[in-house]
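Folding Problem: From Residues to Backbone Shape
Fields: amino acid sequence; protein C-alpha cells
RECORD BEGINS BELOW THIS LINE
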Amino acid sequence: MRRRGDDRPALLVVDDEPSIAEPLSDYLEGRGFAVSCAGDAAEARAMLAAETFDLAVIDIMMPGEDGLSLTRWVRATSELPVILLTARGEPMDRIIGLEMGADDYLPKPFEPRELLARIRTVLRRAEGGRSEGGSYAFAGFVLHAEERRLLDADGAEVPLTGGEFALLVALLDAAPRVVDRDRLLTATQGREAHAFDRSVDNQISRLRRKIEPDPRTPSIIKTHRGGGYALAAKAVRR
C-alpha cells in the first residue's frame, strides 16, 4: 500500500501461506519496498480496489479463487504488473499465466534474491515504458511511448500489459529487421531465453489477438524461421 509521504515502491504479496508471505514481506521491506500481504484472492481484490500498488506477487495455488483467476481480474481492471509464483514450476501454469497477462513467473521453491531481481526488472520495464518519449505509427495504430498507450484507427485504447508494451516497442525499434527470441525475452523479462521457454511465443500470440485483423493469419507481426519475429507493417517514429 502506498502511504502518504512514502515514496517506496508498493508491493502486494498474495499468498495463503504465512510461513512464506511473512518472511518474504520482511525481506522485501528490508530492500526498500513497502509491502502489504493478502491471504486470499478476496482480500487481494479488496486491497487493490482501495489502495495503489506498483506490482503484485501472486501465488497460483490458493484455496477458493486461485491466482490465475485473480490475475485475469487484475489484467481486466488495470495495468498493474503481476509476477506469478507457480508450484513446482508446472509448465501449463506458466503458459496460462502469461496468456492471462502476467509479466513474469517464478517456480516454488525460490530464492528471495531471484524474486527481488525479477521485481526490479519488471518495475524498471514498466517505468521505462512511462518515461520513453515519442510515438510510433504502424498499421493504423499509434503507440504513445511516454504514456504507454496504444490507440487503434478509431482512437480507442488497446490495453497492453507491461510485457506486451516492451515486446511491441522492441519490434517497432527493430522494424523491419527480425528480432530473435533471446533478444525479445531479454527486452520483456530481463533474462536470457532457455531452449524450451515459450513465454515470448505466448506473448506474441496474445499481442496478435489485440492488433491483428486475423490472428490466425498474422500480417503485422510475422514469424521467421529460426525463432524470430519481425514487424511486417511499415513503422514511422514521430
Observations:
- The domain at 10-128 is CATH 3.40.50.2300 (Rossmann fold).
